[in-house]
From TrEMBL:
PANTHER family: HTH-TYPE TRANSCRIPTIONAL REGULATOR TRMBL2. This is Sugar-specific transcriptional regulator TrmB. It comes from Paenibacillus barcinonensis. CDD domains: PLDc_like_TrmB_middle (cd09124). InterPro entries: TrmB-like, Tscrpt_reg_TrmB_N, WH-like_DNA-bd_sf, WH_DNA-bd_sf. Residues 8-75 form the Transcription regulator TrmB N-terminal domain. Pfam families: TrmB.
Length: 264
């Protein structure tokens, strides 16, 4: 009984409507006076509810004095409710105002506490993959968050500049010099959210955060290129170094020097 009333209310009927419908279905038919007496409620409330249910088509009313009310068969009632709900859902789908989706935004975060709190929330919410490109100092600060994510089954891809020992099996990759005295870091979570920032020495901790697909795509592409170069270096070793110089410095110098801030 209670479960039936619960589901009727879930379908949009009031508590009084639900009780009257169940009572009429049990008894077959009844007048307003009889229903009110069996339910122990006021006749005025019952009469008003019976009239409302009849107008909506869920009750039949027989002529005579007093009028007798009866419920539809259960399959008729549920079919009527289903048709009404489908009609309403179709109307809502057609008529609901449609707005353009919000464009991804960029926002800045400053200060160690703010940057790492923001980052910690995203790492804790990661479901599929985390891509990390950091220096040894930042890797140590993120160690526990990344280990917890990996324990949840999140795929972890990372590279670490500045020496070994930050995490198990670190992967130092070829890098280019950057302006300023800080250490750059970047992270991409689930290929939708990313943070790119700088920290350390005399450089205040600052980061840019966005879900813009262009930025996440650029960071993932840069990371993949570094991995390719790393694997080539591991595979070709001395031959690659002899031809292009350690860490490909000869090649990098051709392009990076033309963008050096000191020469601008």
């Amino acid at each position: 009984m209670d479960q039936l009333l619960h589901h009727l209310r879930h379908l949009g009927f009031t508590e009084m409507e639900s009780k009257i419908m169940v009572e009429l279905a049990r008894q077959g038919s009844g007048s307003g006076y009889e229903v009110a007496k069996r339910l122990g409620v006021s006749r005025s409330n019952v009469y008003a509810t019976l009239q409302r249910l009849e107008q909506r088509g869920f009750l039949r009313c027989s002529p005579g004095e007093p009028a007798k009310y009866s419920m539809l068969k259960p399959e008729e009632m549920t079919r009527m409710i289903s048709d009404q709900m489908h009609s309403s859902l179709a109307y809502v789908e057609r008529s609901m105002p449609k707005s353009e989706p919000e464009k991804p935004v960029f926002y800045n975060i400053e200060g160690d506490k703010n940057v790492f709190e923001n980052l910690g929330r995203e790492l804790a919410a990661a479901k599929h993959e985390i891509v990390v490109d950091v220096w040894r100092e930042e890797a140590e600060l993120l160690r526990e968050d990344m280990q917890r994510a990996e324990a949840r089954g999140v795929r972890l891809l990372w590279s670490c500049e500045g020496g070994e020992g930050a995490l198990d099996q670190p992967m130092p990759l070829p890098g280019l010099p950057i302006s300023g005295t800080g250490r750059k870091f970047s992270l991409v979570v689930d290929r939708r959210w990313c943070m790119l920032g700088m920290r350390g020495n005399s450089c205040p901790t600052q980061a840019v955060v966005t879900e813009h697909p262009v930025m996440t795509g650029l960071l993932l592409s840069h990371f993949a290129q570094d991995l390719v170069l790393y694997e080539l270096e591991q595979d070709m070793g001395r031959e690659l170094e002899n031809r292009y110089g350690r860490r490909y410095a000869d090649i990098a110098a051709r392009y990076w020097s033309s963008f050096s801030p000191e020469e601008q």
